[in-house]
Amino acid sequence: MAAAQTTPDITTLDPVTVYGRSLDMVGEATSASQGQVGASELSQRPFLRRGEILEVVPGVVITQHSGSGKANQYFLRGFNLDHGTDFAVTVEGMPVNMRTHGHGQGYADLNFIIPELVQSVSYQKGVSFAENGDFSSAGGAQFKFVDSLPRAFVKTELGEDNYARFVAAESIRSGKTATTTVGVEASYYDGPWDNPENGRRFNGFAHHVWTVGDCDFALTALGYSSEWDSTDQVPQRAIDTGVIGRFGTLNPTDGGDSERSSLSFDVNRRGVDSTTALNLYAIYSRLDLYSDFTYFLNDPVNGDQFNQRDERGILGGSLTQAWNPELAGLRTETKVGLQTRSDFIDVGLFNTNNRDRISTVRDDNVRETSGGLFAETSIYATDWLRVQPGVRADAYHFDVDSDLDANSGTANDALVSPKLNIVLGPWAKTEFYLNAGYGFHSNDARGTTITLDPADGVTPVDKVDPLARSHGAEIGVRTATVPGLVSTLSVWALELDSELVFVGDAGATEANGKTRRVGAEWANFYHVNEWLAFDADAALTRANYMSDAGGGGNVGRHIPGSIETVLTGGAIVTLPGGWFGTLRARYFGPQPLIEDNSVEAPSSLTFNAAVGWKNKDWEITLTVLNLLDRANNDIAYYYESQLATEGAPVADIHLHPAEPRTFRLAVTRRF
Fold it and tell me: Which domains does the chain have, with CATH numbers?
């Protein structure tokens, strides 16, 4: 009789928490402006908006100029990135940036992410990373979801201005190697606006991971939908003269609705000395947005509200191979990859009144296809010298079918982008970096085939180059010599050959000239002891056009909207008995609003705080956003508009105020 089999005892290890950016990455990173943030810091940061997750990247500023249901405004390294141009974001390998988008090139909406299910955020800045392609001149970030939750949870949040949010998630284990994690989120918010936002959001999440032999598999399904009424930026004169209050609107019918769904499949095969990774994805995205920035400037009868519509399907994927060949007796690490993406886009711009369409500016069907090849090799020349040459090649095809035949057509472009990273060290847990490379962003496909202004159908318009080249260099240092302290310092420069972009708000192209940005960044994370951690970051940038004609012919070399000073910092306290707290500060300096810098947007300083208590099963957190109730502006622009009572256009600052002090209480139950 066979002996009875016994099941070995399972040993449960105490959880290990990696605080903030305490991973020093010495011996792994190839630049000083590269890092990773774990779930522990994400869970302890107070966020007003979903997109503010990206403020864990040193130097990044996230704001908003209208309703919370659309993509945020991004600022980094002297770029007003609008909604994502020149900052590439991926989630589980899927691109977030939308090219040839109705509301702006590179539109990156993160509202589909449930923050409690994010495992980590990795980031890189600059153009020296071969794996990063389109939209990555300023940098890029990659989101990774949790594969498994230690316990199921239900979270309820309530706050001022009719804020309510519910989140629930659970991991279900099947067999020895498979786990399915599911989650749902629903929220409502009116905001402080005189015209309530009436913002409704729903998110769904399903992530199944399993292992067969030496292969790890993952299947991820995401869904998101939202509706909102928005308060867009308003002219300063309307506030000053009492036409509206600071939180008022000049068009209460502005707003929109959006949805996104996706399915991705990942395979990672582990070999003896190699790894193969396959990622495939399918995405559906839709946005209907109603905005009014100029009021009665263009149409004194119906007003200037317009509708931007974008609906698309995306198919794409990547295949990468990494291995460790020996080269001339030297240890090396090599990675090559193929990336491909096709967008099938229905995009339009319409004049509206109270959300009713009254005319069409342009209506297009676009197919945009791209393919990219990249390769990089790390050569360990000595114990203290690592050299990483790299290169990527990209090819694009644009096919535009416009309602105005003269603006239909096809375009093609390709470029090769060499990269080079040199790492010296480590010595006493300190490394030095030299980085250089070329990058690019694609322009809106409609701008590559346009010949006539769609507003009148007769005025000639210049086409844009399909791909806008960038090139830059960086020197930096990373040290973890002091126990618990990780500090990085980098000095960098970046030039763009052209910032030619298609302006979705106007339905036409705008020609801007060459730009140069130089800057320095100092990032620090100090895990003092078991109960206290600090971070403090500073980013300084000088951003200019390279000629007075750079800004569309305006005199002056300042780049409107470029933030040149960003200071952020915070403390995390974890005390015995389950008590915890965090305090954060964010400062960004004044920004030029016109090329000669005769008009500036003011600086902004915001404090956020949270305090709470938790045990094994319960967690209670009180969050205070804009702790000092400062009357900051989220964003400001300078342009002409015309109110109903005015007989001529008026050039003015148009601002979107930051939200006042806001209290929110969250209760979490774990099972």
Answer: 34-310+350-670 (2.40.170.20)
